[in-house]
Automatic annotation (TrEMBL):
GO CC terms of this entry: cytoplasm
Pathway this chain belongs to: Cell wall biogenesis; peptidoglycan biosynthesis
GO biological process terms on file: cell division; peptidoglycan biosynthetic process; regulation of cell shape
NCBIfam families: murD
Pfam families the UniProt entry points to: Mur_ligase_M (PF08245), MurD-like_N (PF21799)
InterPro entries assigned: Mur-like_cat_sf (IPR036565), Mur_ligase_C_dom_sf (IPR036615), Mur_ligase_cen (IPR013221), MurD (IPR005762)
Protein name as catalogued: UDP-N-acetylmuramoylalanine--D-glutamate ligase
Keyword ATP-binding: yes
Main location: cytoplasm
Segments forming domain Mur ligase central: 118-304
Keywords, ordered alphabetically: ATP-binding, Cytoplasm, Ligase, Nucleotide-binding
GO molecular function, one term: UDP-N-acetylmuramoylalanine-D-glutamate ligase activity
Compartment(s): Cytoplasm
Length: 471
């Protein structure tokens, strides 16, 4: 694929880093680049500043999208937040323009085929980073990419060669454009599927269909790792993947299935090519990391195992597993209180998992939650909150999702605040009333657009507030 001399329109610069990396990649490959974004120059100032050495060689069209830009360029590169049914995207398609995104460009230009791609509703960031951790013990030339402000897909190409290991997190927004592509990762992992992004994908089946693109073009020499315990796994299997399927499960796998599972003694068992091998007992691991992370460990183990890393070496690497930022991350502790930042819990299921991690502290668990709705269902969330959270220990940050949470709970009174600082101060005061050491869990169960730029901005501001309030 040749970019030099082509007129290319980048639709959406954004502020999370992916747009900047894509713009620089296109410019360095000789494209005649135009960037269009509905945000103003002031809103995009951090991104424009990162392009200051080349910005005078790029056409910027900000605060507006113009028809002529979609008609006069050869190719349109979409930011992940741009839906395919956008009227300007339709205009470009109808006029025969080539449509790409950062993920499709990555596949077309990456020299390595040693790619592990991870998608799903929950757990994908942890699995991506933990798989990268295990692979680095085998090959230091391993890169973790995608869906994080500091790890855009198109930012490290000068470091890649055919022997590089790449582990990348891929979202449904990125995958939906791969429907007509002809490339795929050597190993694909789908962590699970729950109701999410319905405002974008219109239905859960359409959302699952976008996720299924991750393995659509795999062949018989590739691998697909699926969660046996998730009800949507049968949907993915029904798509008849050409790749070899391995499963992970907290129950003993049927004899005909290969993969990793937890037996009745809490042992993690590998079964590949009809041979079983025991690794660790997960009881201590779950005490430290929570039961939900056992799924993440199994999927990561399998991906590394398929790269030829011995189980003994994988077990050694568990001791140095990284804590993932903003995923149930402990950000403060003293003799009276622990505070965990779980800002990337943008769905009810994510917060349920966090609550279950700390449910042994039922009488001392304080939850800060609430945010922006995306047509999510909070009934199961409400049942979990009623079971494990004292009403006096529940603090809401106002928002459209918060209204749905309160409706699902059906209580008469609520502790609700307009700003995060007030929530934190009230939660700390509540811990002061508890007999034993308390845990404050900031797990919003939703997105954040009404009050923050995104969940990462929300997490950074929460951490600053902890320092401000507690010193």
């Amino acid at each position: 694929m040749e970019l030099r001399g082509k007129k290319i329109l980048l639709m959406g610069l954004g502020i999370l880093g992916g747009g900047v990396a894509t713009a620089r990649f296109l410019f360095e490959h000789g494209a005649k680049l135009t960037i269009t974004d509905l945000k103003s120059a002031n809103d995009l100032k951090p991104s424009i500043e990162k392009l200051k050495d080349i910005v005078d060689k790029i056409d910027l069209v900000l605060g507006i999208h113009r028809k002529e830009d979609f008609l006069n360029n050869d190719m349109v590169i979409l930011n992940p937040d741009v839906p395919l049914d956008n009227k300007f995207v339709k205009l470009a398609k109808d006029n025969g323009k080539q449509i790409e995104n950062e993920l499709s460009l990555f596949y077309k230009f990456c020299p390595s085929k040693n790619i592990v791609a991870v998608t799903g509703t929950r757990g994908k960031t942890t699995i991506t980073n933990w798989t990268g951790h295990f692979l680095k013990s085998f090959n230091p030339k391993t890169f973790v990419l995608g869906n994080s402000p500091d790890k855009p897909f198109l930012s490290n190409f000068s470091n890649f060669d055919k022997d590089t290991n790449i582990v990348m997190e891929t979202s449904s927004f990125q995958l939906e454009l791969l429907n007509n592509a002809s490339y795929a990762p050597r190993i694909a992992i789908i962590t699970n599927l729950y109701r999410d992004h319905i405002n974008r994908h219109k239905s859960l089946k359409e959302y699952a269909g976008a996720k299924a693109n991750i393995f659509k073009y795999q062949n018989k020499d590739d691998f697909l790792i699926l969660n046996k315990d998730n009800e949507w796994t049968h949907f993915f299997v029904s798509r008849n993947p050409k790749s070899k399927i391995l499963y992970f499960s907290k129950k003993t796998l049927p004899l005909e299935d290969s993969g990793a599972y937890i037996n009745e003694h809490s042992d993690l068992i590998f079964r590949v090519d009809n041979k079983e091998e025991k690794s660790i007992n997960v009881a201590d691991f779950e005490n430290k990391w929570g039961g939900h992370n056992t799924y993440n460990l199994m999927a990561s183990f399998l991906a590394a195992y398929l790269h030829g890393i011995r189980i003994e070496k994988l077990i050694d690497s568990i001791q140095t597993l990284p804590q993932i930022k903003f995923r149930q991350e402990k950000v403060y502790e003293n003799r009276k209180i622990q505070i965990y930042n779980d800002t990337t819990a943008t769905s009810p299921e994510a917060t349920i998992a966090a609550i279950m991690r700390f449910n042994y502290k039922k009488d001392n668990l304080v939850l800060i939650t609430g945010g922006t709705d995306r047509e999510l269902d909070f009934q199961e969330w409400a049942e979990t909150v009623k079971k494990y959270i004292n009403p006096k220990s529940l603090f809401f940050l106002s928002g459209s999702a918060t209204e749905k949470m309160k409706l699902a709970l059906g209580w008469n009174t609520y502790n609700e605040f307009e700003d995060l600082k007030s929530c934190l101060e009230a939660a700390i005061k509540r811990v002061g009333d508890l007999k034993d050491k308390g845990v404050i869990l900031f797990s919003p169960s939703s997105k954040s657009f009404e009050k923050f730029k995104n969940e990462f901005d929300r997490g950074e501001k929460f951490n600053r507030l902890v320092v401000e309030v507690l010193g």
